[in-house]
């Protein structure tokens, strides 16, 4: 028989009242138990043999007996909710460990791990039925018998037994008492004499028991011996505690010392449309504005118990067998015969009640009341629901009692006939509560007859009953009871679609915990359908997680959200994914699982967000608060977004005077620069062709340059990295102390000594601080507005030789709460370039909310052809962030005092070229190369100053075709070589400056032109082993706009008039130079 049948048999088992004296409970108290608690583990699978009402012997059945102490009332209100919550807490999944059994479900692109068992749901369901009080229309929970227990150690056990009987009789007369009795005063009585086998008087006990048997009958009496462990010996240690499942009735206390009122919610709150949580009063644990570090009340920990107990330590194995024997004797000698007798009597009464008068009454009621099924929902007046009152001997109630008694002892066919008959009677009387109960039990009787029974399972019976309980009778507890029972039947029959609908129908606001459990079960129903409906499963799990959260069950809420995340994550369900990740982070943070909270919040921000600014602000605040609570130096943060394809590395020192755009060497393409550099190299070395190991100077590396080999940068020169940062959010972000994170391998490749400014890097004993090796410059403050993109330039100055690797960028991040600096306020566009000018200094931790974060810089080269792919690496190596630091080199700076932006076509101007060696070693073999040598030339050899006249020169043809100048211009000859030495400047010492006159000529074509000059030089102290640069170059480019000019030719001739002496005829010819 399946679990569903076993569960229903367990729910519908005979109830037996227990009335124990104080002495008896004290005797059991040595084991930390009351008498009722003592016998609970032995009440299952009790075999009973009965005969049907016709006298035919039936096969033996195994039943469970529900013993209940008469002094213990049924929990109501907050206490009932507290016990239900405790049942769920004791069976919650371990979110850190393996947890319950998992099942992997694969469907299309989905791989989902789901819980194959839900013990917390079963525990809640069992606790619900345990705490369910008996009802007037349902006799299955009424007491069939009463067990009276007295101690043999009492001075007058018989008198005490009479007193217990009298007290029970008074309770039966008290209609307001919580106990309900199946047959009123007529119930089976069973008398137990409890004897202490270790300290009790055996002779006195035997005499007392003999008198009890003479008075009440041997079949109704039993002497139970317990505590047989000798007092002189310590009790044996037994690690098996069969009473561990007994609930403790200690009310849980909150962290502030107040008792929990048993409500399923800590504070009422509602969901906002954007997925957030809003508390309606006070501070709620899910309030986004509550700091994560502040603990809040939660139901995730079970209630504190009364301390560790060793239950049953005075019971021997024989004592436990005695208890089993007592339960068996009671069932076979007292309860079974009593039930058999009552079944026979009820059958006779029901049969006699079917006389002519009863048939006439039923016909009359049917004529006036009607029998339409819709009548059960016809009246919504609550006062009319219970208007029908039956006496205990009413024929309708006798039929119902017959059905309940037969059902309790597994005579399901007899029970169905009785329920079906009672249903018609109650329907005719419009007694909707009784009718709903009869329909409910009739459906259960058909189900318990098995799938091969004579009738199909009538699902509409349960549907009618649940609707009546909810809509007409206003009895939600009975509707929940019917739904739980109906769910077991539908699950056994495989009707998962109907089951999901029934469970969702019971969702309400009166119990968040119950609603969460029902939503979760409905979600699992969608997994059992064919085909599987994964998205419905995940959606209902999200709803269940929300209701678990409202009920204070954070662990269950976290488990539900994590299961749903497997379906919604990275599937385009943006708002659903945001809600899941945010609530997962909140629950983890409240449970103290900050690492998991960080991962959830990180996933929330590591994607495009479509939330509004307010919700994004909440996300970022909780994310930063989690990082702060983790108390670690740095975490990898997804904000702001860095465009890895735009990472640009500049190698070499760029003085502030060269920050103007016309000196950065980016006006012409790189191929022209390489050609000029090659010409200079051949001129300086005297070679006719380039050697195989020749390599051009690399000063800029980006995605457009070949980066297959690491570049060499001289020691003490700046390495600048440009990063494009984008704020994807609708709120402003503030960055402070932005700097590069690096690692340098000192010395040669095999030394293995590494130094890094990573906070987690540990220095060796003989190593200096990181700033001794690399000077790191920081950008003090950057404010990135919503949706803004900025470009920042971060720089390093190496102080040693080695192999440098730029790992990432570190910064302090916070929401922008202060005004931006003037540098960022002045930006009118969405992009700006900011450069650091100050070295990195430690920031005091007391500055407030900003937290340290970093992002790893990862660049990759071009995509390889499939044939060239090795080790699954599809992209070429890119070394733009891995330069080699070589020895110090000279550094030439070329500049002009003034440089014209506009010239006439063909105009010649004299400029003062200033050359400075800013680095320590001297430079030699200084050469200059011009892309268009006709536009530039040097002056006379030895000239070191400019004449006052700089705008007049005389042009005359030369024999060799070159253009020469007269002495006024001080330009002896214009040379047309691409590479030319600088007159009088072959070398330049460290720190020295020299000025040289230079003539430039405006091109003959009007428009914008470009002047490109390349200065080539070598160090006077070449490095050993070829570790440094072979030569260096300095690039200069400028844009000049030329405008049209006139070319004038004048011709003077003598006057043709004879009398006009001393006069000449002057003819002037003017021509536009651009034509």
UniProtKB/TrEMBL annotation:
Residues 276-310 are annotated as: Disordered. Residues 672-904 form the TPPC8 first Ig-like domain. InterPro entries: Ig_TPPC8_1st (IPR058541), Ig_TPPC8_2nd (IPR058538), TPR-like_helical_dom_sf (IPR011990), TRAPP_III_complex_Trs85 (IPR024420). One of its GO terms (cellular component) is TRAPPIII protein complex. SUPFAM superfamilies: TPR-like. Pfam families: Ig_TPPC8_1st (PF24545), Ig_TPPC8_2nd (PF24544), TRAPPC-Trs85 (PF12739). It comes from the Eukaryota. Residues 905-1033 form the TPPC8 second Ig-like domain. This is Trafficking protein particle complex subunit 8-like.
